[in-house]
Amino acid sequence: MTRALGVDLGEKRIGIALSDPTRTIASPHSVIKRSGNAEVDRRAVLNIAREEGVTQLVVGLPLTLTGARRAAARAALAEVEALKQLAPDLIIEAFDERLTTAIAQRSLLEGDVRRKDRKQVIDKVAAAVMLQSWLDGQI
């Protein structure tokens, strides 16, 4: 089995998480600062996927609490389609990321992570929470 990559798309940063080779555990990997160029940002995500030998990308889909798709969700789905065009060899799908940032924030607060440090890692921790939820659903 190969690793899966979790992607949490934000306006300023993209959080990246990586599963273990058995696809049991998700771990925070890195944060990509948005460049202002969507193509450059997509290629940065795909470069990490290639470096890590990933065959599947799971992109967070920011639905509302009621499950509605608003502008952010439509933008995420457009990113999924753009990534598929750039990497037809990878399996790329969207997955519900509701409350992942809140869960990540709480986890960091409980771990006494300082505010300054939380801001630097919240995106990759949220990506790991989302990817772990996806992994748990694959069993």
Automatic annotation (TrEMBL):
SUPFAM superfamilies: Ribonuclease H-like. Keywords: Cytoplasm, Hydrolase, Nuclease, Ribosome biogenesis. One of its GO terms (molecular function) is nuclease activity. One of its GO terms (biological process) is rRNA 5'-end processing. Transmembrane segments: none annotated. Pfam families: RuvX. This is Unannotated protein. It comes from freshwater metagenome.
